[in-house]
What does this fold into?
Amino acid sequence: MAFYDHSFLWSFVPKSVAEGMVINMISKKMEMLGKQPSKIREIFEYSNKRRKEIGAENVFDFSLGNPNIPAPKEVNETIIRLLNERDSIDVHGYTSAIGDLNTRTAIANNINKRFGFSAQPSDIYMTSGAAASLEITIKALCNEEDEVIVLAPYFPEYKVFIENVNAKVVEVLCRENDLQIDTNAVKSAITEKTKAIIINSPNNPSGVVFPESDIKALAKVLNDYSNKSGEPIYIICDEPYREIIYGNIEVPYIPNIYDNTIVCYSYSKSLSLPGERIGYILVSNKAKDNKDVYAAVCGAGRSSGYVCASSLFQYVIAECDGLAPDIEKYAENRNLLYDSLCEIGYNAIRPDGAFYLFIKSLEEDANEFCEKAKKYELMLVPSDSFGIKGYVRIAYCVSYEQIERSIPSFKKLFEEYCG
Amino acid sequence: MAFYDHSFLWSFVPKSVAEGMVINMISKKMEMLGKQPSKIREIFEYSNKRRKEIGAENVFDFSLGNPNIPAPKEVNETIIRLLNERDSIDVHGYTSAIGDLNTRTAIANNINKRFGFSAQPSDIYMTSGAAASLEITIKALCNEEDEVIVLAPYFPEYKVFIENVNAKVVEVLCRENDLQIDTNAVKSAITEKTKAIIINSPNNPSGVVFPESDIKALAKVLNDYSNKSGEPIYIICDEPYREIIYGNIEVPYIPNIYDNTIVCYSYSKSLSLPGERIGYILVSNKAKDNKDVYAAVCGAGRSSGYVCASSLFQYVIAECDGLAPDIEKYAENRNLLYDSLCEIGYNAIRPDGAFYLFIKSLEEDANEFCEKAKKYELMLVPSDSFGIKGYVRIAYCVSYEQIERSIPSFKKLFEEYCG
It folds into this structure.
């Protein structure tokens, strides 16, 4: 989750805009997007203030999805080796716009080995992380007025990237009891303008993993529609949390199930490298017009100013793709938090992946609930930011000790409502 | 200069597009941009083919603007120290979207020390290099139908970024004799839709540096217009080559001359890190509505999927901003190439900066001239790619020996026309 550090974040829109007198001004759409207050940022800043006032150990900040597990040691070892062994001009020089061939080959081989798929290096386009992957993919696919279905709860930047190309966000709520895909609701939301549906599993913010049976049911709905209309509806697979899963859960590899799939991958979470901005797009070679889609991906990346993904980190990925951080710590956090909150009496969705716990707000307005939680120094994010009402996101990529210390506060908060 | 590595680069546009039957297809604008043949790439590939056929030492490839001088040794030393001394979660973690505060402070201090300006860290937005800086700045400033003046010859990606926001490129030719700014021509090109003018000095592809007197004359034209219209015309300063200058030439710091200036900087050339994608935008705090422009920059970066610039390289810049590679080698190359070609009889623009020599084509059609040059294994780029006819770009960021070996070929080529 990126956050925005403008001291003037909440300044007002110039009066002339309010009055509709926009003459030769800068882009108001961009200005307002830059000034948009971020709920998560707001909470994070309040949290910083409280840390100074009462001491860091007494503040329980669960607002940010920033990995707290270091990158596997091989990552830094590889960087140092590359710098020592290879020529500077080579290591720090441009790669081709689509990415280093060895890197793409390593990724394709790994995909094929792990998932029994048939990826080729020429299906892969290296990007600066998941946000870039999504922005580029949406720009490649969508024309103005096209519709993209998102399953609520969803990562709020989807809206930014969809509206960036003047396409339309169509929100479809997940099933209320378990936040799984509501296939019938998706079916009802499809129109002749539907270009794509974004699937994010393991899910931010709910931690839910969508099982293979549900992906197959969704694929059938999409295929049935395409067979009639003659045009595909693409699945955009947003997969930054693929490697962060607990127990024997399997995250289905959607290109094996549905041909018209584009995977947006990132190493931010899998290798704990969020600041380095490295990831890729895979255009399934089974997708209709996949060579044209891949060309559009290249064009979209180019027009958004992406020259190439970081050369050094591409070479790191060529060697480190497939490694994972020690997610055992996330698993311990999840168990402690989930078990403790359920025991207190909270209604929580059991997360099978990612590092978020989604719980039911104890009052209708989750914003109000989060305000009350602040009294107990609990910093939680209301689900309104994710397109759904009545829930709260708890990011547990924090120390085990913070969770331990926070449990009495969660208890007191519960008792305020149900005591 | 980025290049594009699609094996299907010259495939045809689908028939349905040609026939105007576009129904619910992917973005044809992006697809065509991705498939657009790149002249430079085409030359580079031909050059690779020739290398295999006749040996690398016999091919004189002057097509790519890829620095051939390594990064200052402090860059790799700093990376290794950061990895050894700092926490992995910190070094590889998200920075704020606008960039690390220490990095922005170091840059602002350096600007103020070098140029006597008054930059603040809050005026700076860290980016993934010059292309990102330009794409974001243009997106922040322009509404649809706005006009952006570019001075031909110019870097071809300007057009891509301007058309990305459905604004219009207005080409103004430089003066024919010296490729300096034709202030009267700029004045004639200004309309009520003019939002900005891009100034690139030292210039790619001509190597020309615009002197202070000409920038002042330009500033007067822009200010005169703004005073009447009430709305600023912004100067977008594209400065990747600022540190690559020869002799006692001074590159004027435009924010000192013209208030409504936005600087797009990159470390690709100054620190020889083109693959790492690191640079910044400076919104002059003297610009009209500069806080709004800065907010629009933040919004544009966000909507283009830029979460933050590489954290590791931001920390490197905090320590290495102000260093320069050993440009003496470029200077030696320039002298050898310029002197030799003038002696043969070529009409060349003397480059005061960057690493390009721009010479007059010996026939009207520079494309034809470059084709003839290939007979002598000289790989040159015709100026048509840069919005001007009748010139050829020679990128001399190559070995001194390559230039030495190539001189007889330049001589034979000249003799074919004027022997």
Q: What stands out?
A: The two ends of chain A are 34 Å apart (CA to CA). The first strand of chain A starts at residue 60 and ends at 61. The CA atoms of residues 82 and 348 of chain A lie 45 Å apart. Chain A has two domains: 38-69+326-418, 73-320.
